[in-house]
């Protein structure tokens, strides 16, 4: 297998990506596919850390709109990410990977507490590390957790695995037939255009710390391994120029 372009990556997997074709919850076949891709990247010599979302089970912002206290709703969302992390941890172990899960809120019966130096040591020992429970703070998204953890562990790139979206478009590709994909996108353009890369706090963190972002479809064949290898896949967000893909308008 060709060598990897990166030594250490932070992979953000949304909760929706774990649903597969379902409307709720976790699809075992999809989780196994993601686990195989992560192990493939790890087998190339890439140190892989993962942040998982929880939107397939719970969304704190939506729950707060129905009258639930927002902080309480967000803590419930953190627990949803722990469920997803345990499912992914088990799937990685089932395919022969070595993995540890760390949580930003203490749940010592099922996972380690998040300790930066311990996480880095796990990575150096070629273990996959899954970060769950976001940042441990309400009002903060798992996008922000991904940016923060990526910076903390000195990741070289933030890989954002989307569900059935193969990059960043100038309009919502599922709603607008003529939406065009960006080949590359500057941080400032992503912020000023309010494009669906990640939330503005997370994007600003990446820009301030010069952490490049690659947005791709988790369902693409070997997408995670290809992204970790540095293949031209999806959209790259960084300090370079904004360039549109010539042939990616949605039919």
Low-confidence stretches: none
CATH class categorisation: Alpha Beta
Number of helices: 8
| Intertermini distance | 34 Å
- The H-level CATH homologous superfamily, spelled out, is Acetylglutamate kinase-like
In CATH terms, what is the architecture? 3-Layer(aba) Sandwich
Helicity, as a percent range: 25-40%
Using the coordinates shown, work out and report the CATH topology: Carbamate kinase
What Rg is obtained from the alpha carbons, in whole angstroms? 17 Å
Give the class from helix and strand content and strand pairing: alpha/beta
Molecular structure report:
It is a single chain. The chain is of the alpha/beta class. It has a single domain, classed as Acetylglutamate kinase-like (Carbamate kinase, 3-Layer(aba) Sandwich). The chain has eight helices and ten strands. Strands 4-3-5-2-1-6-8-9-7-10 form a ten-stranded mixed beta sheet, sandwiched between helices. The longest helix has 25 residues. The radius of gyration is 17 Å and the shape is globular. The relative contact order is 0.16. The model has no long low-confidence stretch (mean pLDDT 92).
Structure summarized in a few sentences:
The protein is α/β, with parallel strands linked by helices and 251 residues long.
């Amino acid at each position: 297998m060709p060598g990897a372009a990166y030594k250490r990556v932070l992979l953000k997997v949304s909760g929706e990506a774990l649903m597969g074709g379902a409307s709720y919850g976790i699809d075992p076949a999809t989780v196994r596919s993601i686990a195989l891709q992560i192990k493939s990247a790890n087998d190339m010599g890439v140190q892989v850390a993962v942040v998982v979302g929880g939107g397939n089970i719970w969304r704190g912002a939506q729950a707060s709109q129905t009258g639930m206290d927002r902080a309480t709703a967000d803590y419930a969302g953190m627990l949803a990410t722990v469920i997803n992390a345990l499912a992914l941890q088990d799937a990685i172990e089932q395919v022969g990977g070595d993995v540890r899960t760390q949580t930003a809120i203490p749940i010592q019966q099922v996972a380690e507490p998040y300790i930066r130096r311990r996480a880095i040591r796990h990575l150096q020992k070629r273990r996959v590390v899954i970060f769950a429970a976001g940042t441990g703070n309400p009002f903060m998204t798992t996008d922000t957790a991904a940016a923060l953890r990526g910076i903390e562990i000195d990741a070289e790139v933030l890989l954002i695995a989307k569900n059935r979206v193969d990059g960043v478009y100038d309009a919502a590709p599922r709603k607008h037939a003529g939406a065009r994909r960006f080949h590359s996108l500057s941080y400032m353009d992503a912020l000023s255009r309010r494009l669906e890369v990640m939330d503005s706090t997370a994007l600003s963190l990446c820009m301030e710390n010069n952490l490049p972002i690659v947005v791709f479809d988790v369902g693409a064949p070997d997408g995670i391994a290809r992204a970790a290898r540095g293949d031209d896949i999806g959209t790259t967000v960084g300090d370079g120029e904004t360039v549109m893909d010539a042939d990616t308008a949605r039919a």
